[in-house]
Amino acid sequence: MRRLQRRRGYMQATEHAGGVVSANPFISEEYFFELHDRADIRVHMCRFSPEQYEDDLFHRFGIHCPDQISRAVPKRRMEYLAGRYSAKATLQAFPVETSQVIIGANRCPVFPSPLMGSIYHSRNVACCSVSQSDGITALGVDIEHFIAGEQVIDIGDSVINDDESRLLISFTYPYNQLFTAVFSAKESLFKALYPQAGFYFGFDYAALRHLEPDNHIMVFELTKPISKAFPKGKMIFTRYYFMADKVFTLVAV
């Protein structure tokens, strides 16, 4: 095993070289990593090569392809496959009878009981986080490539408010990287809470109140009620880790 980057504010996680290995070039790189402060959560990440995608890979990987996915465009099919590949690899660490993650209501992934999980897939990266902890009722994961400065200016007002912006400016880290981390964290928050909310909610439903770059922690306050379990004013802890050109975020509540 080897250590990922450990510069101040960058990912502190252990990568395991002995993860699931694919003989197919579609999965170009994959690994497991453990979050040092959340040993109860298992995370798998992989890179995939779109040019190597074939529909037959569903059969070869032992992954069910639902009808709605088989009718989708190739980009959607390959991203779904990569996400479920990551989920299947993650589930092998748990004593469950199936490694299939089906599509539930509103296209949310449904993990085998009693597990809680979340899947991310976009561009050429897929990721899955899974936990069996009784203390976790919602789990969300997201990865975002760093948003360039010009785009931050274009979308900034729709993602954060003035107070959040001032908080980010108060730190010495590059503003666009911290902004991307907040953007990603709010995406993870949505993925975690949407199944309970049952409705789409925007970035303004959560506001950044506290940031600890050295400990990879962001704390958000819900500015509007989402459900009985997540009322207005509830604080949500989020973990984030910088990884070269992108950021990984995780919400587990």
UniProtKB/TrEMBL annotation:
The protein's superkingdom reads: Bacteria
Q: Where does this protein have coiled-coil stretches?
A: none
- GO terms of molecular function: holo-[acyl-carrier-protein] synthase activity; magnesium ion binding
UniProt pathway annotation: Siderophore biosynthesis; enterobactin biosynthesis
Q: The 4'-phosphopantetheinyl transferase N-terminal domain covers which part of the protein?
A: 68-130
Report the Pfam families cross-referenced here: 4PPT_N, ACPS
Q: What are the alphabetically sorted keywords of the record?
A: Enterobactin biosynthesis, Magnesium, Metal-binding, Transferase
- The 4'-phosphopantetheinyl transferase domain covers 139-209
One of the GO BP terms on file: enterobactin biosynthetic process
Catalyzed chemical reaction(s):
apo-[aryl-carrier protein] + CoA = holo-[aryl-carrier protein] + adenosine 3',5'-bisphosphate + H(+); apo-[peptidyl-carrier protein] + CoA = holo-[peptidyl-carrier protein] + adenosine 3',5'-bisphosphate + H(+)
Q: Which cofactor does it need?
A: Mg(2+)
Q: Where does CoA bind?
A: 76, 84, 142, 187, 191
Query: Does Metal-binding appear among the keywords?
Result: yes
Cellular component GO terms, alphabetical = enterobactin synthetase complex; plasma membrane
Binding-site residues for Mg(2+), renumbered to this chain: 142-144
Q: Which family does it belong to?
A: Belongs to the P-Pant transferase superfamily. EntD family.
Record's function text: Involved in the biosynthesis of the siderophore enterobactin (enterochelin), which is a macrocyclic trimeric lactone of N-(2,3-dihydroxybenzoyl)-serine. The serine trilactone serves as a scaffolding for the three catechol functionalities that provide hexadentate coordination for the tightly ligated iron(2+) atoms.
Q: Describe the protein's quaternary organization and the partners it interacts with.
A: EntB, EntD, EntE, and EntF form a multienzyme complex called enterobactin synthase.
What protein name applies here?
Enterobactin synthase component D
Q: Per the UniProt entry, what species is this protein from, by scientific name?
A: Candidatus Regiella insecticola LSR1
